[in-house]
Write a structure and sequence with these properties.
The complex is a heterodimer. By secondary structure, chain A is an alpha+beta fold. Chain A contains 16 helices and 26 strands. In chain A, the strands form 7 sheets. Chain A has a 7-stranded mixed beta sheet with strand order 9-10-7-17-14-15-16. Chain A is globular and about 80 Å long. Chain B is an alpha+beta fold. Chain B folds into 2 domains: about 70 residues, Ubiquitin-like (UB roll); about 80 residues, DNA polymerase, domain 1, CATH 1.10.150.120. Chain B has 7 helices and 5 strands. In chain B, strands 2-1-5-3-4 form a 5-stranded mixed beta sheet. The chains are: A alpha+beta, B alpha+beta. At the A-B interface, helix 5, helix 7 and helix 14 of A face helix 1, helix 3, helix 4, helix 5 and helix 7 of B.
Chain lengths: ~700, ~160
C-alpha cells in the first residue's frame, strides 16, 4: 500500500508517538496551531485508535528535535496528511502493544481489548497497561502501514465536538510566543530595508540614541539594522524614529497604477495552458467578462515575533511560522550554520492565514542572536512593518470567455488568469526570507513559480469548472514583476476564480431565464456537490429568493439581494455552498450567510463549523473592503484605518451546517467557505442592484460608480 | 526621563520607574508580568490591548505612565482574580468556552475586558448593545458571531438565569 506522504518522509514510530512515564502518550505532529484547531482535532484521532481518554494524549507540535517534518501547515491538508498518518501509526502501534501484552499475559491477541490504555483479557481487567509494555517495543522501527484502523462505526471520540485545548489559556493571560520570557532577554526591532537592492547610505545613530528614552544598542550588518536593549519602550521608540534618520539609495519605486489588478495585463509573465486545446471552430454565443481582486494582506492581528538565542554555537529559535523544519534549514542556510546547529520550536501566534511575516521575523531574530551570543533576542515587528512588508496575497485578473449552447448551457469555457505567484515560501525554491536581502550576499533574483496543478495550482486554483462542461481550459500568465513580494494567503487564487466563475454562472442562468440554483444543478453530476446546494437552498429559503428568503429583515429599505455560490476547494477538498442575504444602501450590509459543507469524515464538528464561519467572515471582508494601497516609497496601507477589515457591526448572522459523511475520507475544510462566500456576495449584490460589479472590493466607491453609470 | 509612577493594578498598589511617555502596556507586560494585555497596533485601532482604567475601557498601547499614575487598572488577569482561573473560570471566560468563541484567540483578552465593562454597567444587553461595546475591537479569524453569543450567555448567567 502507499503510505501517506507524511509517513513516507517520517517513517519511524518514535517520530510520532512516545509513551511517557506519567501514563500519557505524546503525539507529535509537524503541523502547527494557527487558530484552526489542529492541536485539538489530531489527538482525537490518536485517542480513538488507541482507546485512550483524550486527556491522556498530549501534543508536541512543530518541533525540530523530536517531531516529524511535515513541511508547511497549509492548503487545508493537516487532517488529510497528518491525520491520516497519525491514524495509521496509532493503529499499527496498537497492534504491536497487543502482541506484547498477549505474550506477557499468556493469551491470544484475540482475547485482548483495551480500555483507557489498560488491557483486558476476555473482558476482565488485567494488571497491565500500554506503559508497562511500551518499553519492550523498538519504536525506532518503521511503520509498515498495515495497521487496521477502526471502522467509523466504532468511533466514540472522532466525530465529537471536543472543546479546543488552547482556548482556556488564551482566555486567561499568556499562551502565545509574545508572552515567552527568558532570563537575559533583550528586546529588538529592525529598521527595514525599503526594498530589495536598497543600500543604507546614512544613518544618524546619534539622533536615534538621543530620541530613545533608555539604553539601546544599534547593530548594523550591511543593510540590516537592529535596535536592541533591555527596555522594550526604548527599542520601540528608536525603531519608530529610525526611518526619518536613515538615507537609502537604490530603493525601488512603485507607481500607483501598479496597485491595481488591471496593471498585470501585458506585464512579463510565464505562460502556461491547461485543459482542452483551443477550439477554433467552437460555436455558440460568446459571453465574456473580466473580474479582479487587488493585493490583499494577511493582516494578522499581532505583528510578527520571534525569539532566538545562540549559545555554545547552537542557535535555538521560537517562531509562529507554519513549518519549523523548513525554517530551521532556511535559517541555517542564510547564516551559513550547519543544520545540526539550529533548533526550531513552534510557539503559537495570532492567526496568520498563510505566509505572513513570521518566517522573516525569525530570521531577523536569528541574525541578531548570532551577533549577541548568550542573550535571548525577542524580536517583534512594528504594526507598520507587518502591513508594509508581509508577503501579500497577489492581485488577480480573470477573463472568462464562454460559449453557450442552444440550451443555454456553457459548452466551451476559457479562464485566462493573470497573477503574480501565490507561493514564495522560503525553501520552496522560489522564495527567501526578507532580511536575507539586506545581508552582504543577498540571494539571487527570484525565479517565480506557482504550486503545480496536481497540488491545486496557485493563480489557477479552482479556475477549472467543477460543472459538467464539455470543453474547458485555463490560460495562466504568471506575472513575474509584481511591485511587492507575494505569497500564500488563504485559498490562493481560488477566491478570485470562484468569484468570477460563479458570477458568470449566475449571468448565464439569467440569459437562459433560469433560476441560479436549478441552472447549477442541471450541470452538476457529483451528488455531493448537489447535496450541499440543495441543503443550503432549503435552509436559506432560496425558493422565496425575491422576497429575501429566510433573511432577517432589518428594514434597510430598497436594494435587497440573495445570492448563491458553490465550490469544491481545489476541486479535490471540501465542498461548500453558500447563500448570502444582503441589503445595499451606498454600501453593502450583510444580513445572513448560510453555509453547507461536506468535508467527508469530520473529526470535530464544532471545530469545522468554527472554520466555516471564520472563513465566511474573512471572505466577506476581502470581497467588500480590503485593498493594499501603494505609491512611491512602497505600501501606504500601514494601519487599520487605511486597511479596514470587517467589524463587529458589519458581521451578519451565520448558519453553518456540516454534512457528515463518516464513511468518506476527511477532506480539508479550513478554506472551503471563503471563496463561495465572496462569490455569493457578488451574486447577491448583482441581484440587489440588477447590475454586476466585476472588481473586488465591492465597496462604496464601486457601488456608487455602478449606480451612476 | 525616568520617574516613579504609582498606580493600582488588579487591586494591588504598584510602583514603576519609567519614562512618563511609556505606554502602560509595556509596564504591564514587561515590568509586572501581566502578558494577557496584548500588543496589536499601538494606534488605538484594534482593541487587543484593552484594559479598564478606573472602570472604563482604555487602550494600554497609548496611555502613557504619566496619564495612568494614581489610577486603577484592571487587566484580563483580574478576571482570574475574581475567581476565574483555568480550573474555575469567570462566567465570561466560561461563556467563551461554552460557545468555543475564538480561533487564534489573540483578540480575546481585550474583548473580554470590554465585555466586562459592558456587563458591569448593563446586565441585560441587547445584541446591538454588545456589538456597540465591541466596535473598538478587531477579530481577524471571524469568531465574531460566537463572541457576540458568548457575551449574551455570560450576561444571562450573571443575571442568574443559567445557561441560555
Amino acid at each position: 500500500m502507499t503510505l501517506p506522504t507524511s509517513l513516507q518522509s517520517n517513517p519511524r514510530f518514535d517520530q510520532w508517538l512516545k509513551f511517557l512515564s506519567d501514563e500519557t502518550l505524546r503525539m507529535a505532529t509537524g503541523k502547527v496551531e494557527i487558530g484552526q484547531g489542529i492541536v485539538s482535532a489530531l489527538p482525537q484521532i490518536a485517542a480513538e485508535e488507541l482507546d485512550l481518554p483524550l486527556d491522556r494524549v498530549i501534543v508536541l507540535s512543530g518541533d525540530t528535535v523530536s517531531g516529524p517534518d511535515e513541511r508547511y501547515t497549509a492548503s487545508s491538508l493537516s487532517i488529510m496528511d497528518s491525520g491520516a498518518a497519525i491514524r495509521l501509526v496509532c493503529a499499527e502501534a496498537r497492534a504491536l502493544l497487543l502482541d506484547r501484552a498477549a505474550l506477557r499475559l499468556n493469551c491470544a491477541v484475540a482475547q485482548l481489548s483495551v480500555a483507557a490504555g489498560r488491557f483486558l483479557v476476555d473482558g476482565t481487567a488485567a494488571d497491565l497497561s500500554y506503559w508497562d509494555v511500551a518499553g519492550e517495543i523498538d519504536w525506532s522501527q518503521s511503520v509498515k502501514g498495515d495497521g487496521i484502523a477502526k471502522s467509523h462505526t466504532e468511533y466514540s471520540i472522532v466525530g465529537q465536538s471536543v472543546p479546543r485545548r488552547d482556548l482556556p489559556a488564551k482566555l486567561s493571560g499568556g499562551a502565545f510566543i509574545y508572552d515567552l520570557v527568558h532570563d537575559n532577554m533583550l528586546h529588538a526591532r529592525v529598521l527595514r530595508q525599503p526594498g530589495r537592492g536598497a543600500s543604507l547610505a546614512g544613518l544618524d545613530e546619534a539622533a536615534i540614541q538621543r530620541a530613545a528614552p533608555g539604553a539601546i544598542e544599534i547593530l548594523r550588518l550591511d543593510n540590516f539594522v537592529a535596535f536592541i536593549g533591555l527596555d522594550e519602550w526604548a527599542v520601540e521608540t528608536a525603531a519608530a524614529i529610525a526611518p526619518s534618520h536613515a538615507t537609502w539609495i537604490g530603493a525601488p519605486a512603485i507607481e500607483p497604477a501598479q496597485q491595481d489588478a488591471a496593471w498585470l495585463r501585458g506585464e512579463p509573465a510565464i505562460d502556461n495552458s491547461y485543459g482542452a486545446p483551443e477550439d477554433a471552430g467552437a460555436s455558440g454565443e460568446l459571453v465574456e467578462a473580466v473580474f479582479s481582486r487587488p493585493y490583499v494582506a494577511h493582516a494578522s492581528l499581532a505583528p510578527s515575533c520571534a525569539l532566538a538565542q545562540y549559545v555554545d554555537e547552537h542557535l535555538t529559535i521560537w517562531s509562529h511560522g507554519q513549518g519549523m523544519h523548513l525554517l530551521r534549514r532556511n535559517i541555517a542556510q542564510v547564516l551559513d550554520l550547519p543544520v545540526e546547529a539550529v533548533t526550531a520550536h513552534h510557539a503559537m501566534g495570532a492567526g496568520c492565514y498563510g505566509h505572513n511575516g513570521a518566517d522573516d521575523a525569525a530570521l531577523d531574530a536569528a541574525i541578531i542572536a548570532v551577533q549577541k551570543p548568550g542573550a535571548t533576542i525577542r524580536l517583534q515587528w512594528r504594526r507598520q512593518e507587518e502591513f508594509g512588508f508581509e508577503p501579500f496575497g497577489p492581485a488577480m485578473l480573470v477573463r472568462l470567455a464562454v460559449r453557450r449552447d442552444r440550451a443555454g448551457r456553457p459548452s466551451d469555457w476559457t479562464a485566462e488568469v493573470w497573477s503574480p505567484t501565490h507561493v514564495q515560501r522560503p525553501g520552496t525554491g522560489s522564495g527567501y526570507m526578507l532580511a536575507a536581502d539586506a545581508l552582504a550576499s543577498p540571494p539571487p533574483d527570484l525565479q517565480p513559480e506557482d504550486p503545480g496543478e496536481e497540488r491545486g495550482g496557485g493563480g489557477t486554483r479552482n479556475a477549472a469548472p467543477y460543472y459538467d462542461i464539455p470543453n474547458s481550459r485555463i490560460q495562466h500568465h504568471l506575472v513575474t514583476n509584481p511591485p511587492v513580494r507575494t505569497s500564500a494567503l488563504r485559498t490562493l487564487g481560488a477566491i478570485t476564480n470562484v468569484f468570477a466563475m460563479e458570477a458568470m454562472i449566475d449571468d448565464l442562468a439569467a440569459m437562459a431565464d433560469e433560476d441560479p440554483l436549478a441552472y447549477r444543478l442541471s450541470m452538476l453530476s457529483d451528488p455531493r456537490a448537489r447535496a450541499v446546494l440543495e441543503v443550503v437552498a432549503e435552509r436559506s429559503g432560496w425558493s422565496r429568493r425575491d422576497a429575501g428568503g429566510q433573511g432577517r429583515d432589518l428594514g434597510r429599505g430598497s436594494g435587497k439581494g440573495l445570492g448563491l455560490a458553490f465550490a469544491r476547494y481545489k476541486n479535490t477538498a471540501a465542498y461548500a455552498a453558500v447563500v448570502v442575504a444582503l441589503s445595499v444602501e451606498r454600501e453593502v450590509h450583510l444580513e445572513n450567510i448560510w453555509i453547507v459543507a461536506d468535508g467527508g469524515l469530520v473529526i470535530n464538528p464544532d471545530g469545522v463549523r468554527n472554520q466555516l464561519e471564520g472563513g465566511a467572515i474573512q471572505g466577506a471582508s476581502w470581497a467588500l473592503k480590503e485593498q493594499v494601497t501603494m505609491s512611491g516609497v512602497g505600501v501606504t496601507s500601514l494601519d487599520w484605518d487605511s486597511y479596514p477589515i470587517l467589524k463587529f457591526s458589519e458581521v451578519p448572522e451565520i448558519d453553518a451546517v456540516v454534512l457528515d459523511q463518516p464513511d468518506q475520507p476527511s477532506l480539508g475544510v479550513g478554506e472551503c467557505s471563503v471563496s463561495p462566500t465572496a462569490a455569493a456576495i457578488g451574486n447577491a449584490l448583482a441581484h440587489a442592484l440588477d447590475q454586476r460589479i466585476y472588481d473586488m472590493p465591492l465597496n462604496r466607491d464601486r457601488i456608487m460608480a455602478a449606480l451612476s453609470a | 526621563m525616568a520617574e516613579t509612577y504609582q498606580f493600582t493594578v488588579n487591586g494591588e498598589a504598584r510602583s514603576i520607574e519609567a519614562d512618563g511617555a511609556m505606554p502602560l502596556i509595556y509596564a504591564l507586560r514587561n515590568e509586572l508580568g501581566l502578558t494577557g494585555t496584548r500588543y496589536g497596533c499601538g494606534l488605538e485601532q484594534c482593541g487587543s490591548c484593552m484594559v479598564l482604567i478606573d472602570g472604563v475601557p482604555g487602550y494600554a498601547c497609548t496611555q502613557g505612565m504619566d496619564a495612568v499614575a494614581g489610577r486603577e487598572i484592571q487587566t484580563i488577569e483580574s478576571l482570574s482574580a475574581e475567581g476565574g482561573t483555568e480550573a474555575a473560570p469567570h462566567p465570561l471566560q466560561q461563556a467563551f468556552l461554552d460557545e468555543q468563541a475564538g480561533q487564534c484567540g489573540y483578540c480575546l483578552s481585550g474583548i473580554l475586558i470590554s465585555a466586562k465593562a459592558l456587563l458591569d454597567k448593563n446586565p441585560d444587553p441587547s445584541r446591538a448593545d454588545i456589538v456597540a461595546a465591541l466596535e473598538g475591537h478587531l477579530c481577524r479569524c471571524g469568531a465574531h458571531t460566537r463572541i457576540i453569543k458568548a457575551i449574551g450567555r455570560a450576561a444571562a448567567v450573571l443575571r442568574g438565569e443559567g445557561a441560555v
